[in-house]
Amino acid sequence: MAFTLPDLPYPYDALQPYLSKETLEFHHDKHHAAYVNTANNLLKDSGLEGKSLEEIVKETHGKNVPLFNNAAQHYNHSEYWKSIKPNGGSKVPGSLEKALIESFGSIEKVKEELVQAGTTQFGSGWAWLVVKDGKIAVAKTGNAENPLIQGAEPILTVDVWEHTYYIDYRNRRPDYLKAFVDNLVNWDYVAERYDAAVK
């Protein structure tokens, strides 16, 4: 089954002033699209054509590096677009809020740890909220890697590759991450992912 580039769940200009229309056009239509196209070419004759994206990511890790890199980037980006929304970052739904406070002490602490993880990820990569052994934790990964290969379930995805923020923030990654946690997080989606992960 071929991979397809998902439409953005909102208009290109909907995340301004935090992420510009130009950023979303480049990031979605050029970067994400390139991962999808390359992954589709590499999927042919790989023996994995009928598998889900998650299965392909797990099965190619450490074995088929080019397919892993492109399939994982497709997965990571697809989750990133759903992790953000216009007017995001405000109220955290009840069951998720309770779980986050149990794991971190406060919602502010969660945000601080996410910003710290994203800021300290050297080079390209991702910061995450994950569920592992029933608990929520912050994680970070380099390049295309993601928590699926570490036996964890991602529930929030933050892209820290430079193409994500450079047009709007230049080299100010911490400012982008602060804007992300305060104004962009789609906590309703994170709550859905959390509920599915602990079932």
| CA gyration radius, whole angstroms | 16 Å
Classify the beta-strand content into a percent band: 5-15%
Q: Which secondary-structure class do the elements indicate? A: mainly alpha
How many E strands? 3
Largest sheet, order of strands side by side? Answer: 2-1-3
Q: What characteristic shape results from the CA principal axes? A: globular
How many domain regions?
2
In the predicted model, the low-confidence regions spanning at least 5 consecutive residues are none
Summed over residues and divided by their number, the pLDDT gives a mean of 97
CATH superfamily of the largest domain: Iron/manganese superoxide dismutase, C-terminal domain
Order of helices and strands: HHHHHEEEHHH
Q: Which bin fits the share of residues in helices? A: 40-55%
* Biggest sheet character: 3 strands, antiparallel
CATH fold-level topology of the largest domain: minor pseudopilin epsh fold
CATH architecture of the largest domain: 3-Layer(bab) Sandwich
How many helical elements?
8
Write structural notes for this entry.
The structure is a single chain. A 3-stranded antiparallel β-sheet has the order 2-1-3. The chain has 2 domains: 21-83, Helix Hairpins (Orthogonal Bundle); 94-198, Iron/manganese superoxide dismutase, C-terminal domain (minor pseudopilin epsh fold). The radius of gyration is 16 Å and the shape is globular. With 199 residues, the protein is mainly α. The chain starts with 20 loop residues before the first helix and ends with a helix. It has helices at residues 21-43, 53-60, 65-83, 94-104, 107-120, 162-169, 173-184, 187-198; strands at 125-132, 135-142, 153-159. It has 8 helices and 3 strands, in the order αααααβββααα. Helix content is 54%, strand content 12%.
